[in-house]
Design brief:
Blueprint (H helix, E strand, L loop, with lengths): L1 E6 L17 H7 L7 H6 L3 E4 L5 H11 L3 E6 L5 H19 L2
Parallel strand pairs: 1-3, 2-3
């Protein structure tokens, strides 16, 4: 099983709302960045976590599928750019899956 994790430190989805224009209260009260390194949680469960970029995603997805072990491919993004990155990543994941399954 392979998971693609878009890691924007939490709260990135709220940047689509009008309240995002009201800093610093927005970050403190709404976005609430978690600051966690999820690699430790993955390791506790024997899950491989690899940091990848969008250009590396297709190759790493194929590699993870061939490896046959539970893997998390983490794409780290900046919360303030989260919405646009999420759109791009969704397109990249779809393309990567299509290519990997050929």
């Amino acid at each position: 099983m392979v998971f693609v994790l878009i890691d924007n430190d939490g709260g990135g989805i709220f940047h689509m709302l009008p309240v995002a224009e009201h800093e610093p209260d927005f970050t403190r009260l709404i976005a609430t960045p978690h600051g966690l390194d999820l690699s430790h949680a993955a390791a506790l469960h024997g899950i491989v976590l690899r940091d990848v970029t969008i250009p590396e995603l297709t190759k790493e997805l194929g590699r993870a599928l061939v490896d046959g072990i539970t893997t998390v491919l983490r794409v780290q993004t900046d919360r303030t750019e989260s919405h646009q990155r999420r759109v791009e990543l969704a397109e990249a994941v779809g393309q990567s899956v299509r290519e990997a399954l050929r």
